[in-house]
Design brief:
This protein is of the alpha/beta class. Helix content is about 35%, strand content about 25%. It has two domains: about 260 residues, Rossmann fold (3-Layer(aba) Sandwich), CATH 3.40.50; about 120 residues, no CATH class. A nine-stranded mixed beta sheet has the order 16-4-5-3-2-17-18-1-19, with helices on both faces. A four-stranded antiparallel beta sheet has the order 7-8-14-13. Helix 9 links the parallel strand 17 and strand 18. Helix 4 runs antiparallel to helix 5.
């Protein structure tokens, strides 16, 4: 595709994805996230009570597979009742070798079950081609499990630095590192034991490589290094890039690369805490309470996107529902200085006139409201609160 933009298709997702108008997306989508309707007992237009649900789902998975790029990744939210159906369908289309893994997401504290208290769902992951799939990692400072403790250390060290100077800040940092390591039984933070001249915590990364020893002499940055005994140095280009970006530091006359603690990454784990109420709270903050029954949390979708899209990418959600994926893309672009784009597909499914969502839609001035109308309302409300212009196009597909 020559140019990317945010697009919203209104229509049946299978018809949209197999249409000539959608051919430009073949082998071009970087990430797909879907939360398909399941166990609705016929409340939706998709009959998920029998074999037809599985057949319809398999058809859409085949179409989705064709849209993914070679390095593309697909995530599917599902509960335990349809987990086997989803896995069986995806194994058939993607192959067992391209199974990326499975997240368990905590949904609540208690359920209404009279047997096992089920408080979780799943997010299944498959890769178009696992050989080319991206590494799954996330910055520790935005990982929900680690962020609070790291941010606390950063703010404490900054306060000490501003009040008492660099040396005192380093002493306090050493104590905080010890406390963190003991509390979480994790030693990664011990490398981040330096404080910069502006009060930031950083790690001095070694710049030697497993190569033939060589002398470095770069006049433009006044850098001369004698050969090491058994290892080489990184390239001259790398030294110049680090110097120009202010990322070159010295300790005992030896050069190191500066990596700030907020840039530290970690492999993602399989158990996630993203409770259902978070999705409801997302809508409350937009003044749209009752618009959707069980919207997925924005932070869950952001986590999945951040974990595998480490450069600008195209995100597809063909069961767009409440539009959570669009908001997640907007927030990542804003917070992480990225430029992802989204494509949403949602059926213009009528609402039950007795539902709270229908009443809310009427209050909002939406006549004859459909699910797609609510989704667009949610996106527009988010953009308005952010004082952003509408940057998507709507394509109605019959």
């Amino acid at each position: 595709m020559t140019a990317r933009q945010n697009l919203i298709y209104i229509g049946d997702n299978a018809k949209v994805m197999e249409s000539p108008e959608f051919k430009d997306y073949v082998n071009s989508v970087d990430l797909i996230y879907i939360d398909p309707p399941y166990n609705t007992k016929g409340k939706l237009c998709y009959d998920d009570k029998n074999k037809s649900w599985k057949e319809d789902f398999l058809k859409r998975i085949r179409l989705a597979h064709s849209l993914l790029s070679d390095s593309g990744v697909m995530f599917i939210s599902i509960d335990d009742k349809e987990l086997v159906s989803v896995l069986t369908s995806c194994y058939e289309v993607f192959g067992h070798k391209n199974f990326g893994g499975m997240f368990i997401t905590k949904q609540a504290i208690r359920s209404n079950s009279s047997q096992i208290n089920i408080i979780h769902e799943y997010v299944v992951c498959f890769c178009k081609n696992k050989k080319f799939a991206p590494k799954f990692y996330i910055k520790r400072i935005i990982n929900p499990d680690e962020a609070p403790a790291i941010k606390s250390i950063i703010s404490q060290i900054k306060r000490v630095f501003n009040k008492s100077g660099k040396e005192e800040a380093k002493k306090v940092l050493a104590q905080k590192i010890k406390e963190y390591s003991e509390k979480y039984n994790d030693s990664w933070i011990v490398n981040y034991n330096n404080v910069s001249d502006d009060g930031r915590i950083y790690f001095s990364k070694d710049l030697s490589t497993p190569a033939k020893p060589r002398e470095v002499n770069i006049k433009s940055i006044n850098l001369h290094l004698d050969p090491l005994k058994t290892r080489g140095w990184v390239s001259d280009k790398k030294f110049i890039e680090l110097y120009n970006s202010g990322r070159l530091c010295f300790k005992d006359k030896r050069p190191y690369e500066i990596e700030y603690i907020e840039e530290a990454t970690n492999n993602i784990t399989s158990i996630l805490d993203f409770y259902s109420r978070y999705g409801t709270n997302d809508l409350k903050r937009l003044g749209l309470y009752d618009l959707f029954d069980t919207p997925k949390p924005v932070e869950l979708i952001k986590f999945l996107i951040r974990a595998c899209l480490h450069q600008d990418g195209l995100v597809l959600d063909f069961y767009a529902g409440s539009g959570t994926t669009a908001q997640a893309v907007y927030e990542i672009n804003k917070d992480d200085n990225m430029n992802h784009n989204y494509v949403l597909i949602q059926l213009d499914e009528p609402l039950n006139i007795k539902s709270a969502a229908y009443k809310k839609a009427i209050e909002l001035g939406i006549k004859d409201p459909k699910v797609s109308d609510l989704m667009i309302c949610r996106i527009d409300r988010y953009l308005a609160l952010e004082k952003k212009e509408k940057d998507y196009n709507i394509i109605k597909f019959n």
